Each structure stands twice: as structure tokens, then as C-alpha cells.
Amino acid sequence: MSTIEVRHLSKTFEQKGVHVGALKDINLNIEKGDIFGIIGMSGAGKSTLVRCLNYLEKPSDGQVIVTGKDLGTLNEKELRKTRSDIAMIFQHFNLLMQKNVIDNIAFPLTLRGVSKKTAYQKARALLKTVGLSDKEKSYPAALSGGQKQRVAIARALASDPKILLCDEATSALDPQTTASILELLQQINRDFGITIVIITHQMAVIRKICNRVAIIDHGELVEEGLVSDIFNHPKSKAAKELILKDGYEGSVPNEISQQERMPEGKKIRIVFSENSAFEPVIANMILKFLTPVNILKADTKNVGGVAKGEMILGLPTDTKLQWEMEQYLTEKGLNIEEVTDDVE
Ligand SMILES: Nc1ncnc2c1ncn2[C@@H]1O[C@H](COP(=O)(O)OP(=O)(O)OP(=O)(O)O)[C@@H](O)[C@H]1O
Ligand SMILES: [Mg+2]
Asked: How many C-beta neighbours within 10 Å does residue 304 have?
């Protein structure tokens, strides 16, 4: 029995008489202990799917079966009970700003009738798990994004869930903090045996911790399988676009191995200025010219949607193509210069 089974799930929203088909005939099995990734472009239906998994959103058609229970057949009370097996964390943490850290974690427990003593004991133990014992009395406003997400994780774990749903849980965090939160999720998966579903548009997140991945495109599940298979051999157009785009986007330069490098001609340095939006300009260039480039060095960071840092590219040997690519980058408002020395 799978932990989560999705059968012919469809969801249509109706707004002022207009029907929006957000999900179409989704079939999916998520097994116990999986760290299951769901990726897709903005508007593809990822959040809708994850909200259907705990019936925050009621499917228009099809079934969601969680640990053997068909959520559509449960009454209110049974649904509430099954839902307590499913916790959720979000991009913007959703903490109670007027309560301190320990109260934020204990509050949902006391609300459910757990004694104050037990609730606070548990909250303290969980704070330790997430590495924030020294912040017990702090208020959310005094915490960093990563610390807030740790509190949210501790709160999610308080109900002893079997499943943790994460909707863009690291999207508001910088790369280092993202890595530490992913490690924490991995630890939780390992130590507590919790099945984790991760929705993200960050391919690096999937690659780092997921074992399986599904790709959603315009409300349809277009590809699903082992992360290693799909990332090495994407078949669908959507998967190719998402993965190709990421592979050349430079945030994980040490993952680009020597063997994968193409013979190269000219080397150029791109400096991302204050005004460069973090659009996938390199990826778009590769898609436009259908020719790969080598990222020889990438030291870029996405700071609030603005790219900072520099990148050194090895352009193809074809001089016409070199010129066109340089034109393209210049048109995109990037400063480029030729690099003549060796890049270590
Ligand atoms: N409550 C709603 N009412 C009407 N339409 C909705 C509602 N929620 C979502 N939609 C529509 O359903 C589609 C899928 O939205 P969803 O939020 O699931 O996308 P997503 O993949 O999570 O996108 P993002 O990456 O931007 O978060 C979109 O076209 C959206 O406009
Ligand atoms: Mg979403």
C-alpha cells in the first residue's frame, strides 16, 4: 500500500462562470519514506495538487488515498483525524507573529487538547531537533528566514505526522540556508520515517534530496520516476526545459564535471550588475542557439530576485556563433568582457 495514492484526480476552478482546469487526470503513487519532488512552471498546478493531497482543496474528480483511506469517503471527524497525519510548511512560514517561538510550536497542540505541560515538553524537544533551543523566547520578527522555517518545521512535527508537505519551503531562502533546511528535512525523513513531498521550482532542491520526482505541465503529469533517471534522460518537453535551464544556470558550478565540457573557443566574463534580474538568461541563450556553452566559473547568488556576482563562460568554437551569443547577452543588458588568462 502506498502512503499516498492519487487516482484520476482532476480539479477545475470556477470563477465568474469561467472554468479553469487546474489539474487533469493525475495518477501518482508516493511510497512510505519517499522524498518526492513535484516540479513545474508557475501556474502548472503544483500548489493545487499538494492542497488536494490533504483535502484543503476538494478534487473535482478522482481519489486521494492516504495510508489506505480514501479522503473523499470520510466524514468531517474522520477527515480531521487523517489530516493530522499530514503536516504542511510554506514559503512564508505562516508563524503567529504575536507569539514567541515556543508558543508557536506548543499552541496547536494545546488547541487540540494536549496538556500544557506535555505540549511544552514536546515543543522543547522539537526545538532541539531543529537546532533552535536558544531561541525559545524570541519572537518571529527577530529570526532569520531560515530560523523561521525551522520553527515552522518544528510546529509541523508537533502532531507526529506521517507525511510532510512542503510548498516552496526554501524559495525565500538564500542557497546556504536552503542547504541547511534541506539537510534538516533529510534528517527528519531518516530519523522519523516521515514521507516528504516537496513542491519547488528549484531543480537543485530536487537533485539534492528527492528520490523520486513528478513533472507537472499545464495541469498534467507529464513525467514521473527516479530523480537520477529523469535528470539524466528527461523525455518530456517540460522536463527538458526545466532541467536544461537549471543545468546551465550556474548556481551549482561544482556539479558540472570536466567530462561534460565541450571543446571551447573564446572565454568571456559576465558581471551581473545591481539591475540584472535573475532570469535564466544563459539557459534562454542555449535554447535559442541550441548550442551548449561551458560555465567555467560561476559565483552568482540570487539575492531577492536580483543576480549578483560573475560568471565565466566558454563559448563554442564557431566565431559567428560567438559573436551572436555576445550580441544576445549584450542585448539582455549584461556587461561582458573577454577573458584571456586561464580559469582555474
Ligand atoms: N482558488 C482558485 N480559483 C481559481 N483559479 C485558481 C485557484 N487556485 C489556483 N487557480 C488556478 O489554477 C492554476 C494552477 O495554480 P497553482 O497555484 O496550483 O500553480 P502552481 O504550479 O503552484 O504555480 P506557482 O509555481 O506560481 O506557485 C492556475 O491557472 C491558477 O490561476
Ligand atoms: Mg504554487
From this structure: 8
Task: Please list the rounded mean pLDDT of every run of 10 residues in the chain (344 residues).
Answer: 96 90 96 96 93 94 96 94 93 92 95 93 96 96 94 94 94 88 94 95 89 96 94 90 62 35 72 62 75 76 66 82 83 80 66
How far from 118 is each of 110, 162, 181, 303, CA to CA, in Å?
Answer: 9, 20, 26, 41
SS3 at position 66: strand
Q: How far is the CA of 34 from the centre of ligand 1 (A)?
A: 25
Report the candidate in 206, 242, 246 with the shortest Cα–Cα distance to residue 226.
Answer: 206
Cell matching residue 40 = 513545474
The CB of 202 under 6 Å from ligand 1? The reply is no
Distance 47 CA to ligand 2 centre (A): 4
Tell whether pTM > 0.85.
no
Contact criterion met (CB below 8 Å) for 69 and 81: no
- The C-alpha cell of 154 is what? 518544528
Report yes or no: 94 and 105 within 8 Å, Cβ to Cβ: no
**β-strands 163-167, 86-90: how paired?**
parallel
Query: How far is the centre of ligand 1, averaged over its atoms, from the C-alpha of 259 (Å)?
Result: 40
From the CA of 56, the nearest ligand is 1
Number of H helices, E strands in the chain: 11, 14
Please indicate whether residue 178, judged by its CB atom, sits closer than 6 Å to ligand 1: no
CA-nearest residue, atom 25 of ligand 1: 42
